Amino acid sequence: MTQRLIRLLLLLMSVLMGWALGYIRVPFIDSNYAFWVGFVGCLGLMAFILALFQIRNNASTKNKPETGHSPLANPQNQWLNNNRYLSFFVVTFMLCLCVFIYSRNIIIKEELNRTTNALNDLKYNSNLEQERSKIFLILDLIHKLDSTIFKTHDTIAAANLADRIATLSTSFRINKTWDMENNVIQDLSLERGLLLLALVKTKMDSRYLNKIKENVSFYAADLRNADLHGLDLSGIDLKGANLQYANLHGINLSRANLNDANLVGANLNQALLVGTSMIGAKLNWAKINEADLKTAKLDSADLSNATLTKSKLTHATLLQAVLQNTIFNEADLDYCYFMYTNLTSVNFSKAILIHTTFSRTNLDGSILNDAITNENWIAYLREYKNNGVNTILNNYQILRDSLTIKDSIIYRITSKAN
Prior knowledge:
Elements: H1 2-23, H2 34-62, H3 75-152, H4 155-169, E1 175-179, E2 184-188, H5 190-200, H6 206-215, E3 317-319, E4 337-339, E5 357-359, E6 371-373, H7 377-383, H8 389-395, E7 396-405, E8 408-415
Parallel strand pairs: 3-4, 4-5
Antiparallel strand pairs: 1-2, 6-8, 7-8
Helix pairs in contact: 1-2, 2-3, 3-4, 3-5, 4-6
């Protein structure tokens, strides 16, 4: 009776232990059947412990003095001897079952991954085909728009076609693309870039092109290495667009939205950028010589290693802009606003700084040869808490220039070494 109670308690403990460990998925198998695998595996473990317990009892029985009867003749010893092999078989079976289910789960997981990848590829190809069909449809609408304007002069039909182009283009998708040069993920739309290139190459009336520009956002358009020189894209929305190394020589981008745009290495020589918003734009190594940037917003823009020789930046703002090794030679910076900007390596040679605002900037190490300023410039720099004033005093001096601008006396910053 006592041995039956012990076996019952061991069986109950096996069930409880198997349930507990199976609930917390021990051993863990990445499958929906992990609970039952853990449950069965723990049952097998407890059965193995039970078998060891029975073997121990059997060994202790054999060590007892003989009483004239064979140990195997005892029914209890015979049961123990048979139960030992049964327990070994059960444990082996459970272990094999666990290994089989684990291997099966690995195969199922690999098949599931292959199926998932196939579905993603199918979805991507389906979206790609949809985008291509939209491009062909828009190109057809542009061709019809050209034909309508130059053949029939039907302004109502042309306006309707322009509205259809604007409506259809808004459905273009934005894709995540890895930028290998900057090691960042960026939003890009190849379709919007192609749409813009197709529009500017048509001969449509500027009224309809302006209508499309007003209603269509070219956000994140992929225009890398694009040739847009001399075009009138004033007021266009190119926020977040990639214009890296694009040819924008002589382009009109006045009042355009170029916030967060990538203009690294772009050619913006003689560009018209009046009132253009380029907040947070990347203009590293860009050529912006002889450009008109009056009232432009360049706050937080990266202009490191950019050249702005003879450019006009009157009333432009450069709050917290990155200006490492930027060249402002002969630039008109009158009424331009610099604040919280590091100007240690900026070249202001022959630049106009008469009414330029410097507030909380660092001018230590800036190049100021022959820059035009006013007589009280040093006192003004101290008043607005700029750094590097003592370095300027040690290296430069402000002298009255013999030339005049509109009958006004001007002063130049000259090097003491000369």
